[in-house]
Amino acid sequence: MRNLSLLTDLYQLTMGQGYFNEGKHEQLAAFDIFFRPNKLITYSVAAGMQQAAEYLENFRFAEDDISYLRSLGVFTEDYLAYLSGLRFTGDVYSVREGEIVFPYEPILTVKAPMIQAQLVETALLTFINHQTLIASKAAKICAAAGGGVMEFGLRRAQGADAGVYGARAAVIGGCGSTSNVYAGKAFGIPVSGTMAHSWVMNFDDELTAFRAYAKSFPENCLLLVDTYDTLRSGVPNAITVFRELRKRGFEPKGIRLDSGDLAYLSKEARRMLDEAGFPSAQICASGDLDEYSIRSLKSQGAKIDLWGVGTKLITSADMPALGGVYKLAAVFEGDREIPKIKCSDTTEKTTNPGMKEVYRLYDNGTGKAIADYIARSGETVDESKPLELFHPVEVWKRMTVKNFSVRNLRELLIRGGKRVCPAPALSEISAYFKREYAKFWEEYTRLDMPHIYKVDLSPALHSLKGELARRSGRGESC
Known about the structure:
By secondary structure, the protein is an alpha/beta fold. It has helices at residues 10-22, 49-57, 63-71, 77-84, 114-119, 121-145, 160-172, 181-187, 197-201, 206-216, 230-247, 262-275, 291-299, 311-314, 426-437, 442-445, 459-473; strands at 28-34, 44-45, 91-95, 100-101, 108-113, 149-151, 177-178, 222-224, 254-257, 282-286, 306-309, 325-333, 336-339, 356-363, 369-376, 387-390, 398-401, 404-408, 410-415, 418-419, 454-457. The strands form five sheets. A seven-stranded antiparallel β-sheet has the order 13-12-1-5-3-19-20. It has a six-stranded parallel β-sheet with strand order 7-6-11-10-9-8. A hairpin with a 7-residue loop joins strand 16 (387-390) and strand 17. Helix 2 (49-57) runs antiparallel to helix 6, helix 3 (63-71) packs antiparallel against helix 4 (77-84) and helix 6 runs parallel beside helix 13. The protein is globular and about 80 Å long. It starts with 9 loop residues before the first helix and ends in a 5-residue tail after the last helix.
């Protein structure tokens, strides 16, 4: 693990100096990571927690880090000496990677001495904002495709780390493989890919290029057929090579289309392959695909089995930032919790104070998710009694749920600076996401005009929030 202690913003370190000078640096504090809604966020897929945990376990300032900070001429020597011995010793509560999450829910909470909790803010947001964003985009793409999505985005990612961890996040969101060999090795992801147009162009003619490739890879022969003319050259030449392969005892994998009218070309290619005796040959499509273009192609009857999705997945092109934030929720004096609130004239920017629990309610008849319920720490939900839910702002919107079960979405990830359970394999995380995704009605996850999933506050939390907001309006400390 790289030493990432300086992966922070300067103001975290300057606030740390101030806390140190005021003797507040060791005061216990709790910060929540959550994201706010926008028109493109209906749900998100939590990701990045494993990298967050690794970062916190390895948090330290090396000698050259301290030397660099000294060179800035901003910090005192006693503060730098303190930083040189600093380690993360706090607790972290988090949802599982692959969990479906919604706006305002604290998906990760850091409870640690103030200076530690403050210094790790930027890095934690970096890991969780990025991977949650890409996992969420992948989930929408994979839902539109119905499976068979390959992540092809490395060359279009905003940097190497974005490509590597974006591939990991894409698999959490449902992708079955990646073209990224580094990510394949690092995370155990199946890798996929065959040839580019340059391969075909490097030979005297297309048929010769296809034959050469089939010679090298007879058991994995998938040919790119649109370099010159897809239907008059590419597919006929591929069929010729497939027949030669079959005579040698091998079956072809299929063809790839990377341009043109993919709906029309795939239907014609399917017909040609079937008539030639290759009904099992798969058709792969690539080329600036996303959930909307895939949905359109499927509605046109495109005969596409595999989808290679690159740029618009790895960059989350229509929403390039999740907008997750890190806000102080409480400070502690001994065992006493002092809830904190950030108020705003904009209702959605007023935070939920204090330590919290996040519960998901499921209908016992269907097994489907009903709503999420944010409560104060220590509050439980009695499944044997009806539970009234109400909108946190438009409180006249209410419903009563019966015959339901409850699951606490969060668990202790780190205690005293050390992870409390082994990190699950990426395949386990992806499988978990798929199981949980299936528990939501399609009305909540569809692309167009989805229903807004209910995320409500307990009466105790709602009351606390209102009281602290009123005190804040009087200029009193919260």
